[in-house]
Amino acid sequence: MTAMMKQYLDIKKDYEDCILFFRLGDFYEMFYEDAIVASKELGIALTSRDKGSADDKTKVAMCGVPFHSAESYIAKLTRNGYKVAICEQTNTPQEAKKKDPKAIVDRKVIRVITPGTTLDTNVLENDKNNYTACIYQGKNGFGLSVADVSTGEFLTKSFPADMDRKLIDEIAKFAPSEIIINEGVSIKTVIEGITSLKLHVYEPWAFDESNAYKLLCKHFNVSNLNSFGVESLVECIIASGALLEYLNNTQMQKLSNIIRLKNQNTLNCMHLDISSRNNLELTKTIRSGDKKGSLLHVLDKTKTPMGARLLKKWIEEPLLSVEEINMRLDTVESYKNDDLFREELKEKLINIKDIERTVGKIVYNTANNIDMLSLKESLSYLPKIKALIETIPAELNQSIFKNFDELEDIYNMIDIAIKEDAPPGIKDGGFIKDGVHKDLDMYRDAQTKGTDWLLQLENEEIEKTGIKKLKIKYSRVFGYCIEITNTYRDQVPEDRYIRRQTLANAERYITPKLKEIEEKILSATEKIVEIELAIFNKLRSRISENAARVSSTATDIATIDALYSFAEVAKKNSYVKPVVNNGGIIDIKGSRHPVIETLSQFPYVANDIYIDNEDNRIFIITGPNMAGKSTYMRGCALNVLMAQCGSFVSADSSVIGVVDKIFTRVGASDDLATGQSTFMVEMNEVANILNTATQNSLLILDEIGRGTSTYDGLSIAWAIIEHIADTSMLGAKTLFATHYHEITDIEGTVDGIVNYAVNVKEVDGQLVFLRKVTKGSVDKSYGIQVAQLAGLPNTVINRAHDIMMNLTHTKMIERPGSDHGKDADPEGTTYF
């Protein structure tokens, strides 16, 4: 077995769960099982490199990728869930041979790239965070921590033992790329099913409370965790400490851009469960999973990656504080009313690159010259942005202005050091400006003069030897040589020329003077690279030390950008500023569904909504399919959510009483993984709503009970409405759409319930949707007419009409208390 192979095996023992990228010159090589996995995933051919016996592992082929293009290969592997350990040489061949002439260069793992810790901009999405999560389950409940190493965000939250469903909702919100857990997490299978991730059981010692506490204090350089509000939250401490341990072990350097731990328990925002996020299509559509067609797609006019990520957070975490909401709304109003300001701000923002992630790359020593120049260009616009926002008097805007750090010193550091036309890489030098370092200038001078020295020596030798075809050339193997063709071989002065290489038609020689010049030139090149790398590393280190300042400014830019986006959309789509208070009334005049309004090719029919905590608490909405019941209800929910995000709303006017939670129960499908039918899934979701909603919640319930028999479903739907309407049990504001027309009889018998209908009319047997919602109810679902619009064959439609007429005529529709219709009550009888 070769020494190199032994070196590989020694390193691989500690990184069994990783694919090892082993640096050999200009290639990364993978061996054994790694090579087999990589060849399948990357489509790279295997190559036999080492020979051995039939039973010898070393006979297994190797797989290699060029060093300069390794990122794209690593990206593909991490996207598919693999971890990649990067093994680099840590000394030069010359240094290795000083220890032992037969030794090979030392190599060690410098970083482990995982799905949740990649910094490759080709993998990361600008408008999404890339989280690694840690779930800890202890005696008293759960702790959840998430971190994005590319931006430095670090969050934690705790959950009581009986609140595992809320934990699942939170995990779905963050959508991590990777999750580690402690042994024995009870909901591991459920989380794997929801996230489609394989959860990794991490080292037990990492979940020791004492170790976790000490690690957090050491990282943040504090004596206790009081300043983060988690001092008494044991589950949060353990989850956060274990996650930090994992990140330290994979990144193998100080996590300088992770500067604070945010306690999400104190986050004052609206609760949205998985179903509500999906049904309202907040950030992606249900059908395709695309951003287009979602609320985020409508509201996102941000110009920076940081702004796009923050806007997504705002939509996923609507505020509950009336004061905070109105501060955002006031700033959006100021931005919206000043067209010139928005235009000038846009021109500045479009030049701001991803400051957060660039600093992340700098902190983790993966940044190159392009990253440095990108950061410098972004920073050059900060003074202009600060001067611009000073003109807007809104309170939130002025707060940003007062704390806005222009980072002039960081800009100057980069500007002084890095050339504008610097090459991307830093390995070969040539990117540091003249005048930065005295020795660097000296060696560059020697390098420049070296060409003149060689030309001068070449002319001298031509004159001394009389060989006009004499040339000084460079070989990577032999260095600088004097090349003379065989025609002039007899004229070579044997006393001064030492033969080095024989070619087909020439000989190459060296002289003592040529070797002296070569040494000066080559040492200058080596020294130049060495000094430039030292300057770059020092620059990288100084920026890393200021990561907290840079991150703070990046947050300010993101906030300005998100506010700009709300203002731009409000102006373009004629949105209005909502009146937001704690009055408990939702009064929206001319409410529109913000997404459908944008995508529809036809004029949108707006409707009014007035719902309160008293006589207008529950709407029972009837009407045929496709008439617009769901659009009406979801439009209401989205406008409430937008208002609490700090956005203007899609309406003519609106008063929004803050709601603490929005629940939606719209549509269902079988859950084959857990063996649950459509109806069981529906009942589980409804149970969650009834058990966790409050009087300050908004419920959107569509077609409850349709997954079972008619009378079972009708009975359940009726009972649910009565439960919600009872203020001693729930009393939440509710929009309830149904095809059970009998339920409309409950109006007048239970307080707070009002019937509404989506109007349609028949014209010559054709159904016309009016899209207008008015008080009252309808007693027909127009199912056959809708089926006809869907394109069912005429034979089916005609037969359906015949059957309907027959059923209606013979009263064969079974009703509670009847004997297959024999003693059926007259049509219109109240059954409950």
Largest sheet: 7 strands, mixed
Average the pLDDT over all residues and give the rounded result.
Answer: 88
CATH architecture of the largest domain: 3-Layer(aba) Sandwich
Count of distinct strands: 26
**Percent in helix:** 40-55%
Task: Please report which band the strand proportion falls in: under 5%, 5-15%, 15-25%, 25-35%, 35-45% or over 45%.
Answer: 15-25%
CATH domain topology of the largest domain: Rossmann fold
Short description:
This protein is an alpha/beta fold and 832 residues long. 42% of the residues lie in helices and 17% in strands. Strand 25 and strand 26 form a beta hairpin.
Walkthrough of the structure:
The protein has 832 residues and is α/β, with parallel strands linked by helices. It contains 27 helices and 26 strands. The strands form five sheets. A seven-stranded mixed β-sheet has the order 12-22-23-24-20-25-26, sandwiched between helices. Strands 10-9-6-7-8-11 form a six-stranded mixed β-sheet, sandwiched between helices. A five-stranded mixed β-sheet has the order 3-2-1-4-5, with helices on both faces. Helix 12 (322-336) packs across helix 21. The N and C termini lie far apart (85 Å).
List keywords for this structure.
832 residues, 27 helices, 7-stranded mixed sheet, elongated, MutS, DNA mismatch repair protein, domain I, Nucleotidyltransferase, domain 5
List the helices and strands and how they pair.
Layout (H helix, E strand, L loop, with lengths): L2 H10 L6 E6 L2 E5 H11 L19 E5 L3 H10 L4 E6 L3 H7 L7 E7 L18 E6 L3 E8 L4 E8 L3 H11 L3 E4 L6 H8 L4 E2 L7 H12 L13 H18 L10 E2 L7 E2 L1 H6 L15 H5 L5 H12 L5 H15 L2 H11 L5 H9 L5 H12 L1 H8 L5 H9 L4 H10 L20 H28 L5 E5 L3 E7 L12 E5 L3 E5 L1 H34 L1 H27 L5 E3 L4 E6 L2 H6 L7 E5 L6 E5 L6 H17 L7 E5 L3 E6 L11 H15 L5 E5 L7 H16 L7 E5 L15 E11 L2 E10 L7 H7 L4 H17 L22
Parallel strand pairs: 1-4, 6-9, 8-11, 9-10, 12-22, 17-21, 20-24, 20-25, 22-23, 23-24
Antiparallel strand pairs: 1-2, 2-3, 4-5, 6-7, 7-8, 13-14, 14-16, 15-16, 18-19, 18-21, 25-26
